[in-house]
Amino acid sequence: MKDLLRTQDLSRSDIELLLDTAADFAENPLRSNTALANKSVAILMTKPSTRTRLSSETAVAHLGGTPIFIRGDELQLGRGETIADTAKIISGYCSALIVRTFAQADVNELGANASIPVINALTDDDHPTQLLADWLTIREHFGKDISGRKFVYLGDGNNMSHAWLVMGAIMGAHVVAATPRGAWAPDPRVIEVAQKIAQQSGATIEVLHDPEAAAKDASVLYTDVWMSMGDSEDERDEKVLALSPFAVTENLMSLTEKDSMFMHCLPAHRGEEVEASVIDGTKSLVWREAYHRRTTIQSLLYHLVRGDLKGYSQ
After folding, report:
1. Whole-angstrom Cα distance, residue 224 to residue 77?
2. Is 53 tagged catalytic?
3. Dihedral sign from CA coordinates of 23, 28, 29, 30
4. Active-site choice (156, 174, 265, 298)
5. 224 an active-site residue?
6. Domains of the chain: which residue ranges?
7. Of these residues, 149, 293, 294, 303, which one is catalytic?
8. pTM of the model
9. What is the DSSP letter of 73?
10. Tens-place pLDDT, residues 211-268
11. Fold of 7-126+293-306
């Protein structure tokens, strides 16, 4: 496995290896501080970022490498150089490429033409690096045995809902995406992929449209902002109206298991997708979750550059 382009690229054994190593990096960030010695990693972002940029640059530095941050408008891409040519040029200078952009097709093309590992750090379709941080946080809090537990995403059927369903399927979990019907439901093609994986892993995949039914007896309630980067402001009022019943409130949390927790990929808009008392309360794991963006990207870089990951066998 050369690249991580989609969540579905990972096998369960890959994920377990990545999480084990990330847990080690959480305890000792400089454990492998020569793994990227005298090497550089390009970090290409056409979308603004806080956690992804900071975690990526820190992860490279902790492995002994040099992070090179590049905005999309700083490359010749803006003057018509092809993605394929750009991938080949970056491959000549760097040992890996982390990319955060809009179109999944652009990340796929970078992976196809780069000779170095390419890591999808977010597209409009998927967010695999976030899900690694999420599952390390889940494992850290609940342990490796997740039998009988239900993990629920509520809100927009966006890239996070896609990654949530697919990762849960790979991990053999009971995962739910609770969204409105229609325009803001998850992509049916992603649901099909998750269900196909679940047939092999024993996972339970549900897509519901009733937030209370979804939240009942859940171990985790997870949400994301309602207006993502690139969403049209013209549809804000309609979208907020449709998503309002899916806001994570104290009332919704009261339907969950006694030891349930709240998670959010951040940034958060208190008073919209989550009540302030929930995200800032005792059941919130969001800050530990954000911390693990670094540990998991560090682990991913470490293992991809070494060629340790096998990939999911379709």
Report:
1. 30
2. no
3. negative
4. 265
5. yes
6. 7-126+293-306, 130-289
7. 293
8. 0.97
9. G
10. 999 999 999 999 999 987 667 777 889 999 999 999 999 999 999 999 999 999 999 9
11. Rossmann fold (3.40.50)
